[in-house]
Specification:
By secondary structure, the protein is an alpha/beta fold. Helix content is about 35%, strand content about 10%. It has a four-stranded mixed β-sheet, with no helix packed on it. It starts with a strand and ends in a 12-residue tail after the last strand.
Length: about 110
């Protein structure tokens, strides 16, 4: 079953590390708010030195492929408060269905 990711940094790291196959990803519904390439470049630059320090080139390649394949949705571009809740410790940043998503603005 295709997976839905809820965090660009965490999900891309899982893919780059080989824990999740990019072909198994339906999409990532991100908490990012990147309106253009300059925004993505800033996010990627930050993640390369923070979240993806072990594999920055591979992770950037993965994210750029997901973006090119139109598999990254950013609901915050429409409503800044509308983003998925994730828990690193509970590893709730992958779901099987959008019905499983808990939204920050739904509380």
């Amino acid at each position: 079953m295709p997976k839905i990711g809820l965090s660009v940094s965490l999900c891309v790291a899982d893919i780059a590390r080989g824990d999740v196959l990019i072909g198994d990803v339906k999409k990532i519904i991100a908490g990012t708010r990147c309106a253009d390439e300059a925004d993505w470049t800033k996010v990627i630059t930050d993640y390369r030195t923070e979240s993806w320090i072990e594999f920055p080139d591979k992770a950037e390649e993965v994210l750029r492929q997901l973006i090119a394949d139109d598999k990254v949705e950013q609901p915050r571009l429409e409503n800044d408060n509308h983003s998925p809740k994730v828990s690193v410790s509970k590893k709730t940043y992958w779901v099987d269905s959008e019905d499983d998503i808990i939204w920050h603005d739904a509380e």
